[in-house]
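Revision sheet: structure tokens.
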Amino acid sequence: MKKVLTLLALFFCLNMVSGQDKIEITADDYENTTVEMADTMRSNGKIYVVVAVVMVVFVGLIVYMIQTERKITRIEKEVFKEKDNS
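Predicted:
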């Protein structure tokens, strides 16, 4: 795992040093107040689908974490109960 993290850090540093992917920011970028993608999705009604999918994923993760916590708590109680009986 350390090797993978080291390689990723090295790749990130080399990518930052090379500077090939730099994007120039112009005065027009600061004056732009519209987001075409969001406007298009909102006009088509698809933004609600995106929001719904994000909410379903978020709620699913919360439910999964709660269930996992309950299982861990139950197993911990069983382990401590057996330890006290020994």
